[in-house]
Amino acid sequence: MWNAMSVNPDEQDLTTRRTYYDAFSGQYERGRDKGYHAFLDRAELRAILPNVAGKRVLEAGCGTGLLLEPVSHAAEEAVGVDLSFGMIQHARKRGLNVVQGDLTNLPFPDGYFDVIYSCKVLAHVPDITKVLAELDRVTAPGGRLLLEFYNRHSVRYLVRRLRPGQATSGSQTDADVYTRFDTQKEVANAAPDHWKLVNRYGIRVATVVPQLFTLPVLGSAWEKLESGLVESPLRGFGGFLLIEFHKDV
Q1: CATH assignment of the domain containing 198
Q2: Domain count, the chain
Q3: Which residues are bridge partners to 79 per DSSP?
Q4: β-strands 139-150, 179-181: how paired?
Q5: Are strands 172-173 and 167-169 parallel, antiparallel or unpaired?
Q6: For 67-98, how does the pLDDT look when each residue is reduced to its tens digit (9 = 90+)?
């Protein structure tokens, strides 16, 4: 069973989610160049970048382009799509090829992309089965998908259950947007039958609070610890599960 927190998806339409992220876009990058958020980006890029050289690549939910920018330097073609016009405006300032769009109705032809990745996005999409089908449509036969989900079997999930919503912009908190935590089995069951799960990366396995990454001396040691856990036997307990699928030829 898909496990949603805070917001009922039936009560949060596309316009509401777009408005939330438009408001968040101006502050999205604040503090993301160091500490916890920078670690997340680096861990994700270590999994993504080896797959993109010479490929047509799509980032599904590109935000302001923090991941898409380094990907664009390695890929043959890199495109980003995001629901929020505010996020897209920031990405365009980086000179990135981005379009505004809904992940359930992508503005791309069938089988166009060799690689698709998505981080910190799919957990906030209510109709995940429809999104996976649409990602499948635009993925070429033999293509790869690296898709990140929030993991219900994690310390992060327990922390989120216990703490109040954290401010994102103005009076908004992260409790105001639909969020779902899944298990790897649920994700695999929702994926198209012709996708093969070939790898997984567990990001944020041991971290209870993000502030550990900013502590003097300990911060760098903590990041080294977490980096070592990403592909360890404990990766199944990562707060973020980055799952790699291959689409059948």
Answers
A1: 3.40.50.150
A2: 1
A3: 58
A4: unpaired
A5: antiparallel
A6: 999 999 999 999 999 999 888 999 999 999 99
Per the listing, tokens 């604040």 go with 30
243: exposed, middle or buried (C-beta count within 10 Å: 0-12, 13-18, 19+)?
A: buried
Tokens 């999409």, residue? Answer: 125
- Decide: 219 and 112 in contact? Cβ < 8 Å: no
Instruction: Extract the tokens encoding 234.
Output: 């404990």
Tell me which residue has tokens 């993000």: 210
- 117 bridge partner residues: 59, 146
Q: Which two tokens stand for residue 235?
A: 């990766």
Domain range spanning residue 209? 3-247
176, 7 in Cβ contact below 8 A?
A: yes
- Give residue 174's pLDDT: 64
10-22 pLDDT tens trace: 444 666 665 555 4
Type of residue at 130: K
Cα–Cα distance for residue pair 92/20, rounded to 1 Å: 20
